[in-house]
Amino acid sequence: MKKIAVFPGSFDPFTVGHEAIVKRALPLFDMIIIAVGENAEKKNLFTIENRLRMISDVFMGEEKIEVTRFSGLTVNFCREKKAGYILRGLRTSADFEYERALGHMNRMMAPEVETLFLLTGTEHTPVNSTIVRDIIIKGGDASIFVPKAIKISKYLSK
Ligand code: ADP
User: Fold this and answer.
1) pTM metric for this prediction
2) Is domain 4-155 classified as CATH 3.30.465.10?
3) Whose CA is nearest to atom 8 of ligand 1?
4) pLDDT tens per residue, range 58-115
5) How far is the CA of 120 from the centre of ligand 1 (A)?
6) Residue 87: which of 128, 120, 55, 62 has the closest Cα?
7) Distance CA 54, CA 72 (A)
């Protein structure tokens, strides 16, 4: 059986923290599906198409990575993709409390899907998409917070 993990998130935008989690998890899996959630309730800065493009640009040529959108429950998406694992990153105790509830509830709904958490690298602990978005909206330079392959202005156009 292939070891397939889904890395779900908003990725608005995809940051160096997300990139590091994916790179560190790559040796553990046969495939990682980076799944951009379509969440109508969240106000996004980058369109879903542009988020898919920016992530694909970061991992261009990496055969073990698929980048796709999804809607609905993550566990249902895992079943559809025959993925046995959900990958999540942990930065702080606030992340932990949220992820703990989410992980437990996902496990109750789909016991065959394991959630795997990686602790963020210390240098990426403060990196947060919400703050990165705020920097961009206020005209600041957020390039150090996103992977080198992402030229922010390229993905802002609608
Ligand atoms: P969500 O809306 O699902 O929280 P995010 O795009 O904010 O989506 O995050 C997706 C995943 O990446 C989550 O598990 C989150 O904890 C993790 N993550 C976010 N930022 C970082 C970071 N700087 N380092 C490590 N993991 C991170």
Assistant:
1) 0.96
2) no
3) 9
4) 999 999 999 999 999 999 999 999 999 999 999 999 999 999 999 999 999 999 999 9
5) 9
6) 120
7) 22
